[in-house]
Protein backbone atom coordinates (compact mmCIF):
# COMPACT_ATOMS: atom_id res chain seq x y z
CA UNK A 1 0.00 0.00 0.00
CA UNK A 2 1.54 3.31 -1.06
CA UNK A 3 1.73 6.20 1.36
CA UNK A 4 1.33 8.89 -1.30
CA UNK A 5 -1.69 11.15 -0.71
CA UNK A 6 -2.96 14.41 -2.21
CA UNK A 7 -1.62 16.18 0.89
CA UNK A 8 -0.04 15.32 4.23
CA UNK A 9 -2.55 15.44 7.07
CA UNK A 10 -1.56 17.65 9.98
CA UNK A 11 -3.25 16.39 13.16
CA UNK A 12 -3.21 17.20 16.83
CA UNK A 13 -4.16 13.67 17.88
CA UNK A 14 -5.09 11.02 15.31
CA UNK A 15 -7.28 13.40 13.34
CA UNK A 16 -8.73 15.22 16.34
CA UNK A 17 -8.49 18.99 16.26
CA UNK A 18 -8.78 19.82 19.96
CA UNK A 19 -5.85 20.39 22.28
CA UNK A 20 -4.60 17.53 24.43
CA UNK A 21 -7.06 17.66 27.36
CA UNK A 22 -5.01 15.73 29.94
CA UNK A 23 -1.45 15.44 31.20
CA UNK A 24 -0.99 12.58 28.75
CA UNK A 25 -3.11 10.61 26.29
CA UNK A 26 -2.91 6.83 26.41
CA UNK A 27 -4.17 4.47 23.74
CA UNK A 28 -3.31 0.95 22.68
CA UNK A 29 -2.04 0.13 19.21
CA UNK A 30 -4.87 -2.39 18.85
CA UNK A 31 -7.63 0.12 19.67
CA UNK A 32 -6.46 2.63 17.09
CA UNK A 33 -4.90 0.56 14.30
CA UNK A 34 -7.69 -2.04 14.18
CA UNK A 35 -10.11 0.75 13.21
CA UNK A 36 -8.03 1.52 10.12
CA UNK A 37 -7.28 -1.97 8.81
CA UNK A 38 -3.91 -1.81 10.64
CA UNK A 39 -2.68 1.03 8.39
CA UNK A 40 -2.10 4.55 9.74
CA UNK A 41 -1.40 6.73 6.71
CA UNK A 42 1.28 9.45 6.77
CA UNK A 43 0.48 12.38 9.01
CA UNK A 44 2.20 14.59 11.52
CA UNK A 45 1.38 16.21 14.83
CA UNK A 46 2.11 19.90 15.13
CA UNK A 47 2.48 20.05 18.91
CA UNK A 48 2.44 16.45 20.09
CA UNK A 49 5.24 14.00 20.93
CA UNK A 50 4.58 10.25 20.89
CA UNK A 51 6.33 7.23 22.31
CA UNK A 52 5.14 3.84 21.07
CA UNK A 53 5.97 0.41 22.45
CA UNK A 54 5.10 -2.78 20.54
CA UNK A 55 4.55 -5.68 22.94
CA UNK A 56 3.47 -8.38 20.47
CA UNK A 57 3.00 -8.67 16.75
CA UNK A 58 4.85 -5.97 14.83
CA UNK A 59 5.01 -3.94 11.66
CA UNK A 60 6.87 -1.20 9.88
CA UNK A 61 7.12 2.53 10.54
CA UNK A 62 7.91 5.36 8.18
CA UNK A 63 9.57 8.50 9.57
CA UNK A 64 9.90 11.06 6.76
CA UNK A 65 11.97 9.09 4.21
CA UNK A 66 13.29 6.50 6.69
CA UNK A 67 11.82 3.04 7.34
CA UNK A 68 12.05 1.32 10.73
CA UNK A 69 11.19 -2.21 11.85
CA UNK A 70 8.69 -2.36 14.72
CA UNK A 71 9.00 -5.91 15.98
CA UNK A 72 7.86 -6.89 19.46
CA UNK A 73 9.70 -5.06 22.27
CA UNK A 74 10.64 -2.15 20.02
CA UNK A 75 10.21 1.44 21.20
CA UNK A 76 9.52 4.25 18.69
CA UNK A 77 10.15 7.93 19.41
CA UNK A 78 8.05 10.28 17.24
CA UNK A 79 8.72 14.02 17.71
CA UNK A 80 6.30 16.77 16.78
CA UNK A 81 6.46 17.76 13.13
CA UNK A 82 7.83 14.48 11.76
CA UNK A 83 5.71 12.83 9.07
CA UNK A 84 5.06 9.26 10.15
CA UNK A 85 2.94 6.32 9.09
CA UNK A 86 2.55 2.76 10.34
CA UNK A 87 1.66 -0.62 8.88
CA UNK A 88 0.96 -3.15 11.62
CA UNK A 89 0.37 -6.87 11.40
CA UNK A 90 -3.21 -7.72 12.42
CA UNK A 91 -3.73 -8.20 16.17
CA UNK A 92 -0.56 -6.29 17.07
CA UNK A 93 -0.55 -5.16 20.69
CA UNK A 94 1.26 -2.28 22.33
CA UNK A 95 1.08 1.15 23.93
CA UNK A 96 0.96 4.70 22.56
CA UNK A 97 1.75 7.58 24.93
CA UNK A 98 1.11 11.09 23.59
CA UNK A 99 2.47 14.22 25.26
CA UNK A 100 1.99 17.89 24.42
CA UNK A 101 5.14 19.69 23.26
CA UNK A 102 4.67 22.05 26.19
CA UNK A 103 5.19 19.13 28.56
CA UNK A 104 8.66 18.56 27.11
CA UNK A 105 9.41 22.30 27.25
CA UNK A 106 8.50 22.49 30.92
CA UNK A 107 10.02 19.23 32.13
CA UNK A 108 13.28 18.79 30.19
CA UNK A 109 16.06 21.13 31.41
CA UNK A 110 18.06 22.32 28.41
CA UNK A 111 21.39 21.74 30.15
CA UNK A 112 20.77 18.00 30.45
CA UNK A 113 20.72 17.54 26.65
CA UNK A 114 17.76 15.16 26.31
CA UNK A 115 16.08 17.19 23.60
CA UNK A 116 18.91 16.68 21.14
CA UNK A 117 17.95 12.98 21.02
CA UNK A 118 14.20 13.30 21.49
CA UNK A 119 14.04 15.72 18.53
CA UNK A 120 14.89 12.80 16.23
CA UNK A 121 12.55 10.00 15.14
CA UNK A 122 13.89 6.50 15.74
CA UNK A 123 13.01 2.96 16.78
CA UNK A 124 15.14 1.04 19.29
CA UNK A 125 14.99 -2.16 21.30
CA UNK A 126 13.11 -1.49 24.54
CA UNK A 127 14.44 -2.52 27.93
CA UNK A 128 12.45 -3.63 30.98
CA UNK A 129 12.36 -0.08 32.34
CA UNK A 130 10.48 1.21 29.29
CA UNK A 131 7.92 -1.60 29.42
CA UNK A 132 7.41 -1.13 33.15
CA UNK A 133 6.92 2.62 32.80
CA UNK A 134 4.42 2.17 29.98
CA UNK A 135 2.36 -0.26 32.05
CA UNK A 136 2.43 2.05 35.07
CA UNK A 137 1.43 5.09 33.01
CA UNK A 138 -1.53 3.25 31.50
CA UNK A 139 -2.61 1.99 34.92
CA UNK A 140 -2.39 5.45 36.50
CA UNK A 141 -4.12 7.05 33.51
CA UNK A 142 -7.13 4.77 33.95
CA UNK A 143 -7.37 5.48 37.67
CA UNK A 144 -8.93 8.62 39.17
CA UNK A 145 -6.99 8.75 42.40
CA UNK A 146 -5.62 11.68 44.36
CA UNK A 147 -2.36 13.13 42.91
CA UNK A 148 -3.01 11.40 39.57
CA UNK A 149 -1.67 14.32 37.52
CA UNK A 150 1.55 14.58 39.52
CA UNK A 151 2.19 10.85 39.32
CA UNK A 152 1.56 10.89 35.56
CA UNK A 153 3.92 13.83 35.09
CA UNK A 154 6.64 12.00 37.00
CA UNK A 155 6.17 8.72 35.15
CA UNK A 156 6.06 10.43 31.75
CA UNK A 157 9.21 12.38 32.59
CA UNK A 158 10.92 9.09 33.40
CA UNK A 159 9.67 7.57 30.12
CA UNK A 160 11.14 10.48 28.17
CA UNK A 161 14.42 9.94 29.98
CA UNK A 162 14.46 6.25 29.10
CA UNK A 163 13.62 7.04 25.46
CA UNK A 164 16.35 9.70 25.27
CA UNK A 165 18.88 7.31 26.84
CA UNK A 166 18.01 4.64 24.27
CA UNK A 167 18.38 7.18 21.47
CA UNK A 168 21.73 8.34 22.86
CA UNK A 169 23.06 4.80 23.14
CA UNK A 170 22.00 4.10 19.55
CA UNK A 171 23.74 7.30 18.39
CA UNK A 172 27.00 6.95 20.33
CA UNK A 173 29.10 7.30 17.18
CA UNK A 174 27.12 10.29 15.89
CA UNK A 175 27.34 13.93 16.87
CA UNK A 176 23.77 14.86 17.86
CA UNK A 177 22.55 18.40 17.58
CA UNK A 178 22.38 20.16 20.91
CA UNK A 179 19.63 22.74 20.74
CA UNK A 180 20.60 25.68 22.95
CA UNK A 181 17.85 28.18 23.86
CA UNK A 182 18.63 30.54 20.96
CA UNK A 183 18.71 27.63 18.52
CA UNK A 184 15.39 26.35 19.85
CA UNK A 185 13.74 29.75 19.47
CA UNK A 186 15.17 30.01 15.96
CA UNK A 187 13.72 26.58 15.17
CA UNK A 188 10.29 27.64 16.39
CA UNK A 189 10.39 30.83 14.31
CA UNK A 190 11.62 28.88 11.29
CA UNK A 191 8.57 26.61 11.51
CA UNK A 192 6.34 29.69 11.38
CA UNK A 193 8.10 31.60 8.62
CA UNK A 194 10.07 29.27 6.34
CA UNK A 195 7.36 29.44 3.67
CA UNK A 196 7.71 33.24 3.72
CA UNK A 197 11.41 32.91 2.87
CA UNK A 198 12.63 34.96 5.80
CA UNK A 199 16.28 35.95 5.55
CA UNK A 200 18.88 35.61 8.30
CA UNK A 201 18.42 39.27 9.18
CA UNK A 202 14.67 38.74 9.66
CA UNK A 203 15.22 35.92 12.17
CA UNK A 204 17.98 37.87 13.93
CA UNK A 205 15.74 40.91 14.28
CA UNK A 206 12.87 38.81 15.68
CA UNK A 207 15.25 37.16 18.18
CA UNK A 208 16.86 40.42 19.24
CA UNK A 209 20.41 39.48 18.18
CA UNK A 210 22.73 40.34 15.33
CA UNK A 211 22.86 38.17 12.20
CA UNK A 212 26.51 37.25 12.82
CA UNK A 213 25.83 36.25 16.44
CA UNK A 214 22.83 34.16 15.37
CA UNK A 215 24.78 32.33 12.70
CA UNK A 216 27.66 31.60 15.09
CA UNK A 217 25.27 30.26 17.75
CA UNK A 218 23.48 28.03 15.26
CA UNK A 219 26.72 26.72 13.80
CA UNK A 220 27.91 25.83 17.32
CA UNK A 221 24.63 24.00 18.03
CA UNK A 222 24.11 22.27 14.69
CA UNK A 223 27.23 22.59 12.55
CA UNK A 224 25.28 24.64 10.00
CA UNK A 225 24.94 28.37 9.48
CA UNK A 226 21.63 30.21 9.77
CA UNK A 227 21.35 30.45 5.98
CA UNK A 228 21.98 26.72 5.59
CA UNK A 229 19.36 25.86 8.22
CA UNK A 230 16.81 28.11 6.54
CA UNK A 231 17.35 26.40 3.21
CA UNK A 232 17.45 22.95 4.85
CA UNK A 233 13.91 23.40 6.18
CA UNK A 234 12.55 24.37 2.77
CA UNK A 235 14.24 21.44 1.07
CA UNK A 236 13.06 19.05 3.80
CA UNK A 237 9.45 20.12 3.25
CA UNK A 238 9.87 19.86 -0.50
CA UNK A 239 11.13 16.29 -0.15
CA UNK A 240 8.25 15.41 2.15
CA UNK A 241 5.75 16.68 -0.40
CA UNK A 242 7.49 14.85 -3.23
CA UNK A 243 7.49 11.59 -1.25
CA UNK A 244 4.13 11.68 0.50
CA UNK A 245 1.85 13.55 -1.92
CA UNK A 246 0.98 13.39 -5.59
CA UNK A 247 0.82 17.18 -5.94
CA UNK A 248 2.31 18.56 -9.16
CA UNK A 249 5.81 19.93 -8.69
CA UNK A 250 4.63 23.40 -9.65
CA UNK A 251 1.98 23.29 -6.90
CA UNK A 252 4.58 22.18 -4.36
CA UNK A 253 6.78 25.11 -5.33
CA UNK A 254 3.92 27.57 -4.82
CA UNK A 255 2.94 26.09 -1.45
CA UNK A 256 6.55 26.57 -0.35
CA UNK A 257 6.49 30.25 -1.22
CA UNK A 258 8.33 30.12 -4.55
CA UNK A 259 6.87 32.38 -7.24
CA UNK A 260 8.66 30.57 -10.06
CA UNK A 261 8.60 26.73 -10.25
CA UNK A 262 11.74 26.81 -12.43
CA UNK A 263 13.62 28.67 -9.71
CA UNK A 264 12.34 26.18 -7.12
CA UNK A 265 13.66 23.36 -9.29
CA UNK A 266 17.09 24.99 -9.48
CA UNK A 267 17.25 25.50 -5.71
CA UNK A 268 16.15 21.91 -5.04
CA UNK A 269 18.62 20.48 -7.56
CA UNK A 270 21.52 22.47 -6.09
CA UNK A 271 20.67 21.21 -2.60
CA UNK A 272 19.82 17.60 -3.47
CA UNK A 273 21.94 16.78 -6.50
CA UNK A 274 18.87 15.75 -8.49
CA UNK A 275 15.84 17.62 -9.80
CA UNK A 276 12.46 17.37 -8.03
CA UNK A 277 11.19 15.16 -10.86
CA UNK A 278 14.21 12.83 -10.63
CA UNK A 279 13.89 12.70 -6.85
CA UNK A 280 10.23 11.63 -7.06
CA UNK A 281 10.90 9.17 -9.88
CA UNK A 282 13.68 7.44 -7.97
CA UNK A 283 11.47 7.01 -4.91
CA UNK A 284 8.50 5.72 -6.89
CA UNK A 285 10.47 3.23 -8.98
CA UNK A 286 10.38 -0.51 -8.62
CA UNK A 287 12.61 -2.16 -5.99
CA UNK A 288 14.16 -5.58 -6.12
CA UNK A 289 12.16 -6.79 -3.11
CA UNK A 290 8.87 -5.84 -4.74
CA UNK A 291 8.09 -3.17 -2.16
CA UNK A 292 6.91 0.29 -2.96
CA UNK A 293 9.59 2.58 -1.47
CA UNK A 294 6.92 5.09 -0.52
CA UNK A 295 4.86 2.45 1.26
CA UNK A 296 5.24 -0.04 4.04
CA UNK A 297 3.99 -3.27 2.51
CA UNK A 298 5.32 -5.34 -0.42
CA UNK A 299 3.27 -5.09 -3.57
CA UNK A 300 0.86 -7.96 -4.08
CA UNK A 301 1.55 -10.30 -6.95
CA UNK A 302 -0.96 -12.27 -8.89
TrEMBL record:
<dbReference type="Pfam" id="PF02311">
    <property type="entry name" value="AraC_binding"/>
</dbReference>
<dbReference type="Pfam" id="PF12833">
    <property type="entry name" value="HTH_18"/>
</dbReference>
<dbReference type="InterPro" id="IPR014710">
    <property type="entry name" value="RmlC-like_jellyroll"/>
</dbReference>
<dbReference type="InterPro" id="IPR018060">
    <property type="entry name" value="HTH_AraC"/>
</dbReference>
<keyword id="KW-0010">Activator</keyword>
<dbReference type="InterPro" id="IPR003313">
    <property type="entry name" value="AraC-bd"/>
</dbReference>
<dbReference type="InterPro" id="IPR020449">
    <property type="entry name" value="Tscrpt_reg_AraC-type_HTH"/>
</dbReference>
<feature type="region of interest" description="Disordered">
    <location>
        <begin position="279"/>
        <end position="302"/>
    </location>
</feature>
<dbReference type="InterPro" id="IPR009057">
    <property type="entry name" value="Homeodomain-like_sf"/>
</dbReference>
<dbReference type="GO" id="GO:0003700">
    <property type="term" value="F:DNA-binding transcription factor activity"/>
</dbReference>
<feature type="domain" description="HTH araC/xylS-type">
    <location>
        <begin position="184"/>
        <end position="282"/>
    </location>
</feature>
<keyword id="KW-0238">DNA-binding</keyword>
<dbReference type="InterPro" id="IPR011051">
    <property type="entry name" value="RmlC_Cupin_sf"/>
</dbReference>
<dbReference type="InterPro" id="IPR047264">
    <property type="entry name" value="Cupin_HpaA-like_N"/>
</dbReference>
<keyword id="KW-0804">Transcription</keyword>
<feature type="compositionally biased region" description="Basic and acidic residues">
    <location>
        <begin position="283"/>
        <end position="295"/>
    </location>
</feature>
<keyword id="KW-0805">Transcription regulation</keyword>
<protein>
    <submittedName>
        <fullName>AraC family transcriptional regulator</fullName>
    </submittedName>
</protein>
<dbReference type="GO" id="GO:0043565">
    <property type="term" value="F:sequence-specific DNA binding"/>
</dbReference>
Amino acid sequence: MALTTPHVANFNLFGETGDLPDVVHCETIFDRASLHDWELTPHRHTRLHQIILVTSGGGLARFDDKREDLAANRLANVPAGVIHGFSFAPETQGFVVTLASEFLDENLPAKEGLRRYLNAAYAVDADDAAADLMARIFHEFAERRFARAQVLRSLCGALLGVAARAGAEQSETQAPRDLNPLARKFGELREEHYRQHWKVRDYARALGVGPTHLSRALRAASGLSAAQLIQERLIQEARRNLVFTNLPISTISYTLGFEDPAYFSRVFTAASGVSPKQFRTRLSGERDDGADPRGLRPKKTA
